[in-house]
Amino acid sequence: GAGVSQSPSNKVTEKGKDVELRCDPISGHTALYWYRQSLGQGLEFLIYFQGNSAPDKSGLPSDRFSAERTGGSVSTLTIQRTQQEDSAVYLCASSSRLAGDLAKNIQYFGAGTRLSVL
Amino acid sequence: QKEVEQDPGPLSVPEGAIVSLNCTYSNSAFQYFMWYRQYSRKGPELLMYTYSSGNKEDGRFTAQVDKSSKYISLFIRDSQPSDSATYLCAMTKWGGYNKLIFGAGTRLAVHP
Description:
The structure holds 2 protein chains of 2 kinds. Chain A contains no helices and 11 strands. Chain A has strands at residues 5-7, 10-13, 19-24, 31-37, 43-50, 53-56, 65-69, 75-79, 88-95, 108-109, 113-117. In chain A, strands 2, 4, 5, 6, 9, 10 and 11 form a 7-stranded mixed sheet that branches. A 4-stranded antiparallel sheet of chain A has the order 1-3-8-7, with no helix packed on it. Chain B is built from no helices and 11 strands. Chain B has strands spanning 4-5, 11-14, 19-25, 32-38, 45-51, 54-58, 61-66, 71-76, 85-92, 101-102, 106-111. In chain B, strands 2, 4, 5, 9, 10 and 11 form a 6-stranded mixed sheet that branches. In chain B, strands 1-3-8-7-6 form a 5-stranded antiparallel sheet, with no helix packed on it. In chain B, strand 7 (61-66) and strand 8 form a beta hairpin.
């Protein structure tokens, strides 16, 4: 597709259930990022993939959170045993260095998955 | 203390006003600075990208970076109702692939 696609757009779940959030990056983008945006807060980094590897997973808040990426494309963020404090918008971004400009790393964002834990 | 501080607003201005949005940061290692615009229930979209101190202009938007003061600004001239959105500053230590550190975002409303 033309942009970063995330599904579902909205997810309501009960406390203690597991959820899976999906991100389909822009075709050809090798880098993929997950961020979390809580109400009234800026974006908080969770994890970064380069290809299928995750060189930086420093932002994952607990071992209930995990993510994987397959085929250098689609990524899934899984939250196990969800808690009410997990309620937030989960945003995915992808990037690819612009030709001739190694410094730039412009991240393109999807619309996010709005997660509500009851 | 957060690495990046940004007044969340909300900021309400009349159409045609000049808007000034600001962020301060504590980590002198930040070198690349960005402003993203986020409409309600949408993902952030990049508005401006700057490196080093100084000004960068793009149409009605001007980004300003003062590394000595650890202060960045976004100015919007001749503001329009369509500029109503949340504006997020973001920064990173180096180019290439790495995470962005965001401010909390300032909600702007431009009324006709």
